[in-house]
């Protein structure tokens, strides 16, 4: 294999992998789109299977704005969920942990020994 054959292989592989990525993005968007019913989604998938290049171009031209909006909404939702999770996990201070344990102790849910264990654990973290 000479240099030009290797270069051509790299170029073709790059465009093929890019095309596969676009196909997966289109399929993901087809199923994420709530404005179409199941029959429209099935038609898009059938055309993607039998006439993939033309169908991909048509879908990108027709639905590009909707794809961008749905992707932005998805990213925003995932970011909000991650921030909420991190606040719940990381955002608790030792004082909050001790206050919660003290409330449990006053309510009679835990014993004094368990309170001391929770307190030591919170202060160690």
Question: Can you describe what's shown?
Answer:
It is a single chain. The protein has about 120 residues and is mainly α. The protein has two domains: about 5-90, no CATH class; about 90-125, no CATH class. Helix content is about 85%, strand content about 0%.
Distance between the termini: 60 Å
The total count of helices amounts to 5
Strand content: under 5%
Rg calculated over all Cα atoms:
27 Å
Question: Which labels suit this protein?
Answer:
elongated; 125 residues; mainly alpha
Give the secondary structure arrangement, pairings included.
Elements: H1 3-32, H2 38-50, H3 52-90, H4 94-107, H5 112-124
Helix pairs in contact: 1-2, 1-3, 2-3, 4-5
Overview in brief:
The chain is an all-alpha fold. The chain has helices at residues 3-32, 38-50, 52-90, 94-107, 112-124.
